[in-house]
Batch of 2 targets.
Target 1
Amino acid sequence: MNENEPKILLVEDSPTDAELTMLALQKSNMANPIDLVRDGAEALEYLFGTGAYAWRAERCLPQLVLLDLRLPKLDGIEVLQQIRANPRTRRLPVVIMTSSNEETDMARCYDHGANSYIRKPVDFEHFIAAVKQLSLYWLVLNETPPGEQAA
Amino acid sequence: MQSPKKNETAATVTNPPVGAGAVAALWLGNEPFRLLAAAITDYAIFFLDCAGQVVTWSAGAEQLKGYRADEIIGRHFACFYPPEDVAQGKPDRELQIAAATGRYQDEGWRVRKDGSRFWANVVITALRDAQDQLLGYGKVTRDMTAQQNAAEKFRNLLEAAPDAMVIIDPAGRMVLVNSQTERLFGYGRAELLGQPVELLMPARFHDRHPAQRAEYAANPRVRPMGANLELFARRKDGSEFPVEISLSPLPTADGLLVTSAIRDVTERKRFEQTLQQAKTEAEAANKELEAFCSSVSHDLRAPLRTTDGFSQILLENHSHQLDPTARDYLQRIRNASQQMGRLIDDLLRLARITRCELARADTDLSELARVIVTGLQATQPGRVVDWRISDGLLARVDPQLVRIALENLLGNAWKFTAKRAQAVIEFGVQQQPTERVFYVRDNGAGFDMAYVGKLFGAFQRLHSPREFEGTGIGLATVQRIIHRHGGRIWAEGVVAAGATFYFTL
């Protein structure tokens, strides 16, 4: 795997939220390149290497997807469902990062195979701490599942 | 019925007095008949002359009517009838009918010597000689009181039934209905008896019903009609109403009768419908609330995170461009955002408590309290509080909800004793005659009882944020949890001396 390959795909429609997440990742010294997509449809094109992202068809998958729930076009749950339904991406670690802690949202995410569910805290310092822990865990500690990306 | 005294009376038969006429001669001239009449004690068998006077008597007659032969012979048989029948000339009319047609049969009340009445089956036969000359009458009377009582009991039972009772014969015709049937369907009894039972059903069920009756006759047992089917009945005026019908077989000498108990379920259906509608509305409202909470949870918090996040970035990355006042302002912006974040979370929790299902389980409240206390102590390890938590406080409650309630109550006690050098916080129970009253007591800031009514309202705070932080939703949440358990909550407080919160579950 190329060291410069993006390791995280961030799916986030709000530019400020995206920027805050990027800043938090920088602050947690995770100097991993991050790719950002703005909606659910774009996320799937990126991961499946289709449409505008056809050039990615031969590229490695990221190590982690940070997925928001409220997204234009396809919402987070639908994106998650399609990721799990596709043989190329079914084992891909997906962490839900959202503002909602509604039990129904949480239950649906786990039902559809989310690996983790993080509620973004209002306090930015807590947010930085959360991002630091999750990137450390998923990018360093966790063994990437075998699959297409191991090729 | 009186039991025959067989040994004394079996063979006795009283003969008519000499010269009692032709009918007496008939009695005397027929030895086998006389012996037979003497042996039968279940029936009163005796002869009357043409005028209706008693000519012969028998053991059965004495037993049934209570007269000895010497008391009755020669008397007119009208003395066997109730006075009202006598007044109407019934006895003589019966003789006339018997004389004209040969035989008269009747069922009705008769009177014994002691005045008591019995229900009699009476047959009067005209006795004629070879020249067709009327000699007198033979009379056979049987006591049917027991049978009559049984039949009357059955009718009373039928009348007393809360449902319309309809009994049909094997051909599907109504042979018995009670007054509830008349009331429910608007028909008179005479309009129903002998009619096909289909009269009581809407026309659209008529075709199928004979086959369904046959099916029932083939497998007769007590069961509801058309289980899980919507059944309808039809009144005389053509209107329909929903019913429930239970069927029971009644085997008789005339074939299988079927009893149907028909219950009007209009009111119940209406009630069920109202209930269902209310349920649907409540579910819709709950769904809406859920959607609302979900969107509040997401959309209201997102801008707060932006506000707090960029304030923090300004403070950290651009600190050298800011003077102390600017930094103070930014810190205030952050505090406000975080406070609002907590407020939203508390409100969402309050909403969630209202709509979630109560899941009761045996719960150790003492243990729950200790876990919460450990958590509180961890936030400020330096603080010394004298915790007095009673052991073995068990209750059947929703552990998750009660945990939230205790977190709030113990958290409040912890918060409001922060300025006490020797803080004491107590969690215990008072056993009252009919219930257990749990309490959380502290010796903290307390409150003025004048404001006790405001204590449990959402956003009500009795202390300024400068004194004690909080969102003002905690006790509203506690109250809602207690109410959802069907319990009560109340409080006592003294300013600067402490507060006690009581609750039942």
Target 2
Amino acid sequence: MSVAWQKDGYEAVIGLEIHVQLNTHSKMFCSCPNRFGDDPNTNVCMVCLAHPGAMPVANAEAVRQSARVGLALGCRIPPYSEFSRKQYFYPDSPKAYQISQYDQPLCAEGLFRVPGSDGFEVRLTRAHLEEDAAKMIHEGGEGGRISGSAGSIVDFNRVGTPLLEIVTEPDIRSPEDARRLLTLLRATVVAIGASDCDMEKGSLRADANVSIRPIGATEYGTKTELKNMNSFRFLERGIEAELERQLEIVRGGGMVEQETLHFDPASGSLSSLRSKEQAHDYRYFPEPDLLPVQQDEVVLAELRATLPELPVARYERLVTAGLPDATALALAVDSELAAYLDALATHLNDLKIAANWTMGEFSAHLNSSGLSAAASPVTPARLGALVALVMAGTINQTAAKEVFAVLVDDPAATADGIVGERNLATVGGDDELGAIIDAVLAAHPDEVEAFRGGREQVIGFLVGQCMKQSGGRADAKALQSLLRARLAS
Amino acid sequence: MLQARDCTAVELASAYLERIELYDGDVHGYLHVDAERTLADAAAQDAAGTTGLSGVPIAYKDLLSTKGVPTTAGSKILEGFMPLEDADVVARGKAAGLVSLGKTNLDEFAMGSSTEHSAYGPTCNPWDLTRVPGGSSGGSAAVVAAGLAPWSLGTDTGGSIRQPAAFCGLVGLMPTYGTVPRFGVVAFACSLEQVGPITLTVRDAALLQQIIAGASERDATCTGPREPIVVPTAGRLDGITFGVPWAELEEGVEPGIRARFDGSLQIARDLGAEIVDVELPYARHGLAAYYVIAPAEASANLSRFDGVRYGLRVEAPDVRSMYEATRDAGFGPEVKRRIMIGTYVLSAGYHDAYYLQAQRVRTLIRRDFDAAFSSVDAILSPTAPTTAFEFGARLDDPLAMYANDIFTLPVNLAGVPALSLPNGLVEGLPSSLQIIGPSHSENLLFRLGAAFEEAHGFDPVPPLLRGGSS
Amino acid sequence: MNVRRIELTTDEVRHVAALARLGLDDAEIERLGFELQGILGHVATISTLPIADVPPTAHALDVSVELRPDVARAGLTREQALANAPDPTPDGFRVPPIGS
């Protein structure tokens, strides 16, 4: 079981609202490219600018990817869903309504499991499709924020980007769990290829609904909404800060007020955001310009079949294969690294050894080089050849590290080639070793006598000398046993 | 119609432009005419060699986007607005070689039944210049009746093609919902409206419908007609059964209109048709349902007029004040009424009692029509309960204005097609017959209409303008 | 035309106007309030019809349509996008401050 946040008899009640930008080629309701980073207002059309007479036409691929995400997250996909108009006036909303889904979402309830020895389950309420809003660049003011600004420039490029909004029930019981859930959810969506889920670019956004209540209570306390925390760390810290803030209020005998808050990670403080409408009466009604979306059971089955191995399934497979919990989890959320591991394991026919190398030497290399697993020159085949040599006893660990470094620097080199060129093969044969031992013993008669006289620790020095003589290539175990044998005789 | 090719497109366009010069000062059917551009378009058609309908002039309701030509929707809030693209129906007209004579007047944002709610002044009925031409496509009807365009396109949300056609003695078609694309048409009520022809003859209506109908990539609600439109020939009506909803005609129909309607029924019998009674019990709730649904959709559709990206802006110190000042200055009283109604019926606490109930009534009206059509081929009614009324007669009482559309509204709610054609004069003013058919029955409607048209023998040229017609 | 009217307070009218961002002055609030009472009075006749079991119709069409293929096409140039703008800047559409 995961560790819940509990203090002074209160527990945390947390739900997440997650927005995922789908990586379709075109926008949700028009054919403009679905692209990030263009110059302002250069990626727009009559539809995204909401000109009179403009009409939305729904993107088939966005619907398809949304259904795949729903299936991957364990949601029920109803046979019929509908678009709705969500009405509010704000400059980032050109129609003054957002096309969303209200009472007939594309994905209905589901159950999402975060695996692990301290795993937990969270119910998903729904996932629905909608369009993203424009970006506002606030002139003047402090740091581009709203208050005290001289006006704003509106950039409509982002309008119409397909968004899948995933809503969880308030089943999360700690800030850490929120982060873990989001991490796994992100990994799942990335694994199926529906989005790149980059919090910095805004293709993954998470808001948290936070409240506290006495432990064991069934009713909910007043919740606040934390918006737009743009990293996993900020999400965790922001929720933590809010829980403390609410606890403080309640301890002091006060009442938590419903509001929307922004967390500033630099100062660790929470501030109230101005709400877009004082009373949010969105006046939802079915979008008359779009017909309902029908889902066919046959097509859904086909979509399900297109799903790759999902993180939860991968975790279970790796744990069953004997990998430690932490390793299995790390690999569960990193599809690329997991694919690397699987390929390496196939070469070596040994998953555990492959895991050691993947999580050890290879991961260290990725960290220091900044490369991704798929981009590294140390392919599974090349690394596999190296590890095979270690497994066969041809080289020892020290030599292996040297070979690895060369594999990184020289994409053309092979493990066998390097070992040969640099003469890194382990000295382990009796003849070779024996010759070295004889030479060392002959060179250090005093130490030999001391050992034979009972001073055990001298063997360390002798082993060291032999290693040096061998240029570090002696097989340590064979050396030890042969040396002792020679000394004993 | 000009099919005989005994003049050039330029000559034809010039003739209309001359009549516009002479008569539109009195009629005020046009909001925008650009003679130079029209003649250039006509010349281009002549140069390409006119075939089929190419080179034939047309007028477009100023609700249809025309690229590079101002499109106002009859509102101050879009004064000077230049669309970036043609509406699909305008593009199809261009592709067929039609030459635009200009944009016609309308009730602001198509909200009205008299064209008195245009922000640019009313249009006068060519049959009697002290009377309204009907609405909201009053301009489109008036210019055709006055011989200032051979035909035009209007839009119909609750009767806005058929009722002005009726008031002006013309043919008007409300097509089956989803057969003509709405891309580029300034939206009033999306689930109720279609673009359609306003013409002198039934045959012309079919010809124009052939040009504009068809599926479109840019309109997800438009699947096009189920079968190709056929231009009709007049004939008998043997084997046809008409339904008449007598219960609905008991109240509110002017005696003269009723007499002309009875005349049409007699003609139907003479031509071999059978007349039976049908019941449309929920049609009487059509007005209430319509005045919930249409304003609800309109209130959302008109929210985009906020002064940010185009149109009128009234400057203010903050965004919200800018919205409020812009919209207060830019919208007329009828539009404000409908936005308020629409906002109210969708707002928290009222949504179920109003909006949801109205959508249920809509289902029941549709069922009424479906049931009726299981025993009759088409339904007959007068198009409008009265002839054209005088300016100002209904302005003080919105509900009285809305009552113009009691026979046309249920058609839009059900999404079925209806054809209106003149069936006589009542004290010198046109009266019309409405023929309602099942979904996708336009070819039947045209055939029936042609038969009635020939038998009615109605002369669509108003006495006032009976000099110098082409 | 029946003359049923519903009750609507000035505050309710103001609230609706605020939702719709219509900056109505007091005279307009009063006039529209009066007119709405009459119109809504008439349309309210449907709210008491015993038809709760009837499914609502949101769309006149009963066919399903194929969705749009996911193909990107270039849109407008910035000049075109800003062509009708009341307050254009080189980059985009200026609006006054959000305010309180």
